[in-house]
Structure formats: C-alpha cells, structure tokens
Batch of 2 targets.
Target 1
Amino acid sequence: MSERVGDDGEGRRGVRAFTPDFLTELFRNPLDPGYADAAAQRAKSGRPARPGWSVGPVSLVLVVLLGFLCAVAYRQTTAEEPGRAQARSGLVAQIKQRQTDTDALSVRADELREEVNRQREAALGGSQAARLRDLEASTGLGRVRGDGVVVRLADGPGGQDSLSGANVGPSQVLYSDLQGVANDLWGAGAEAIAINGQRLTATSTIRNAGQAILVDFRPVTGPYEVSAIGPDSMRKRYESSRSALTMRKVAQDTGLSFGVRDVDDLTLPAAPEPRLRYAEPAVSPSASPSGDDESSGSGTSPSPSGGGR
C-alpha cells in the first residue's frame, strides 16, 4: 500500500513515499523525517549543523601543561646526554688503565719467573736444568726463540674497537678465525704459538665475550698477530690449509686484512703458570664390626681398608 502525493506535486516535506521500489526510494531519501526537521530548525536558528571543536579554558590548560611537560622532558634528556657521555668515557679510561696495570703486572711476573728459573737451575745442576728447559719449552711454560711465521688479521672498514660495544659488520675478525689459524699452524708443524703475545698451551682457550676476544681469559684487540715457531716448511704447508684459503676468500669479499710473512729470530714469551689440581685417594669406608672384633682380638689396630693380610 502506498501513500499518494497530490497531483499538483505538493506534498508534505520530508514524508517518505512508500513506492513499490522500496530500496530505490530508501537510498534516494535516507534521512528520517525527525532528523530532517531538526536540521531545518538548526538552520533557522543560525547554529551550525555539526558543532565545531572549540577550545575551552580546561582544554587550553591541559594543552599548555602537556607542552610544558614535553619541554621539560626534552631539556632533561639533552642535559643528561653530556653526563652519559662523560660516564662512558670514564669507564673506557678505567678499562684501559686496568689493562695497562695488568700488562705491568705481567711484566713483573715474567721477571720474577726468570729469577725463579735462575735459582732453580743453580740448584738442580747442568743436565737436569737442561732437561727442565726442554720440557718447559715443549709445554709452553718457557720462553722460546727461533724462526717462524706471523699470520696477521685485522678488521676491515666495517670493524671497530672492541671497547665501544657497537655493532660491527661482516669484516670483523671472529674468535673462530683465530682458532682456525692456530689449529692449522699446529697441523703445519708449529712448535710454539702465541696470539698477541699470549702463549698457547695444551689447556689454552680462544673464545669471545661480547665484542671482545679472550685468549686464556685475557682480552686481545686487533690487529691480531698469530706468531708461530717451527720448521722451514711450515709456511708452505699453512698456505694450503683450510683456514688460509678461507681467510683469503673472506678478505677478498669483505675487505678484512689477512697476511702471512716469514720472521727470523722470533721470540715467544712463556705462558703463565697453570693452576695444577692434584688427585687424592678417596677415604675408605669404616671397617666392618666383624673386622674390628677380629683385629682387636689379635691385638693389632685395624687397617684403613678394614682388612689385612
């Protein structure tokens, strides 16, 4: 059923005419008559159809307070930046000072070790002292001299100092690179190896801690020099090793520095004295009651194992 509009085309404004094509009329006149009347009254009164955003006193205070807080936070951040930089530089200076003190103590320890060796050789005699020197040289506990090679590795343009702690690119020397070089030098016939003056022994470790590389728990920084004393054929054998071929490829691709050179009359220092651990026999369990009775009956004290022959 539909409501007919007058023939003169005049009709009540805003009244929806229900026609058979309901969907078409709905999209043509979607506004409800109540909303249309409210919009007409608002237009007559001069008020805007949609109220605009107005800044009241409370809103203005909030905006000013927010701006003030942002300004204070920015000023505090910029004011603390020099302090953080100064604290960081102070920590770096302390680390370098501690490293200098450690090096000085190492030198003093070497001097005392040499004095102990002289006193020991004087007490042992000629043949026994010579045998002791040979054993110390083979185990890394004695200073050695001879001809050898030096493998030098250095970070490329993307590398950086290990104290800064920032990210580094693929051109950085890794601890595994030093491990591979040392292992292949041993395989090439090296008799003694040192990394940046740190002598390697059978119990030495090469690992990383953050951005630093540790050799026997002592940090070493680039450029890294792996010095080795060995036979004349050592360099030729090392040149064809896996680590040498790999490092040349890495140096070609990333800009990392890698080189091998012969060195005459190379001197390698002694490694620090190891902390030896001695095994002790376990304490035997207490003797059985029967064993105690038999021992006491014979008039002898019981043996540690609870029995006897």
Target 2
Amino acid sequence: MARIAGVNIPTNKRVVIALTYIHGIGPSHAKAITEKLSIAPERRVQDLTDQEVLQIREAIDAEYTVEGDLRRETAMNIKRLMDLACYRGLRHRKGLPVRGQRTHTNARTRKGKAKPIAGKKK
C-alpha cells in the first residue's frame, strides 16, 4: 500500500484513479501529475517502483495544497467570512445555502432533516 500525502492509496487501482483519493487532487490534477512524470495512465499502483512513488510524492508536495493544509485553509476562509459578517458569512453561520439557491423548498442538505410543524386542531 502506497502512502502519499498522509493517505493510503489503494494498490489495485490505476494510478490516475488512486491519486483522486487524496483530498485536493481531482481527475485533471491526477492526469497532469502522471503525464508530467511520464507514468502510463493504465499502470496500477502495485506496479509502481519505490522511485516512482517518491517522485509522485515530491511532485504533489511541491505543486499542490492537499489534505490537512487544504482543509485548514478552507475552514479559515469560511471563518474569515463569518467574522466579517458579510452576507456569505451570515449564510454560513445560519447553516443556509450560500450561493443564492432557493430555500422555500429544497435546501435540505444545508438545512438538515425537515422538522414537522404541528397541524391545526379541529
């Protein structure tokens, strides 16, 4: 099992797919990394040599913000918005959609499970 950026990437998957298990590296970044290091896209992680794993690790450390650093940076950006008390910060604070989606219906991901309101008595 190869360990890159603090993540155990699966050994039986292709390198491009396995790299996407690292937070902050998506399919396009994974493809760019493999092309830069001239690793064939159909190769599996278990077929990589220790030298190639080391090259991948160094390339990611040099060029990308990943895992804990990225999560910390994102959390700090949200905290900054909340401290500023700008519109986006207030929406984050209230747990509502931030980017202009409707909330009359839908928005259940942000608002949580629907809370029933007691019906009118007869």
